[in-house]
Design brief:
Length: about 200
């Protein structure tokens, strides 16, 4: 049976949606894994069932006013009934965010996503990449993890650029990396659980 990775995201203007598609593409590149994108602005049964069935959930939101969007927070609060049943306990979790500023306080958003996952008893997967670009004199703007985050995948989109033009390729490749890493952990955990149950 294939392993389901769900990318549960919100995007007001399309930039985080572009990042979400890159995360999904990375996850889907791992054999045995299916990746599904779910826009959490529609809190319907299809969404909740997909999240119930997922081995891993990767949360994504734009950074608005230094934290997750109000739409994402509405989703988080609506998950309270899942929390009461500990329905996502021991699933894998990870996160990503896009903002306009190079820094933009994105770390605060990722921290908030990690706390949200921890409240649900999930296993948080970090980005797992060293910082690129300005971290050393030989760094390049096209480096993976050019924004230098550790907790999740960061992307930057100029506020006057449309989602066809931003985020740029380095941030999209970083997002793909996160999706691939989460999918690999999901495969490893599935195998480990099968061994543990035998
Ligand atoms: C209400 C609002 C608040 C924002 N706050 C921030 C912020 O705190 N830091 C930042 O760098 N950009 C901020 N931005 C810019 C967005 O993060 C940026 O445009 C991002 O690409 C939007 O992603 P989206 O297209 O997925 O909605 C804000 C934008 C809006 C509309």
């Amino acid at each position: 049976m294939s392993i389901s990775v769900v990318i549960a995201y919100h995007s007001g203007y399309g930039h985080t949606a572009r990042q979400a598609r890159a995360v999904a593409s990375g996850a889907a590149s791992v054999p045995g894994v299916t990746a599904a994108l779910h826009d959490i602005s529609a809190l319907d049964d299809v969404l909740w069932q997909a999240l119930t069935d997922a081995e891993a959930i990767i949360f994504g939101t734009p950074t608005y006013m230094g934290s997750q969007s109000a739409v994402f927070q509405a989703f988080a609060e609506a998950s309270g009934s899942v929390w009461a049943q500990q329905g996502w306990r021991d699933k894998i979790a990870a996160g990503f965010t896009t903002s306009a500023g190079v820094n933009g306080d994105k770390l605060n958003t990722l921290s908030s996503l990690a706390v949200f996952a921890a409240q649900h008893g999930m296993h948080w997967v970090s980005l797992g990449l060293p910082p690129g670009w300005l971290y050393s004199t030989v760094g390049d703007v096209e480096d993976l993890n050019r924004l230098g985050g550790f907790l999740g995948a960061m992307a930057q989109a100029p506020s006057d650029a449309g989602p066809d033009d931003a985020p740029g390729t380095a941030d999209l490749r970083t997002a793909e990396h996160l999706g691939r890493r989460v999918a690999r952990v999901a495969v490893e955990l599935r195998h480990g659980r099968l061994v543990g149950a035998a």
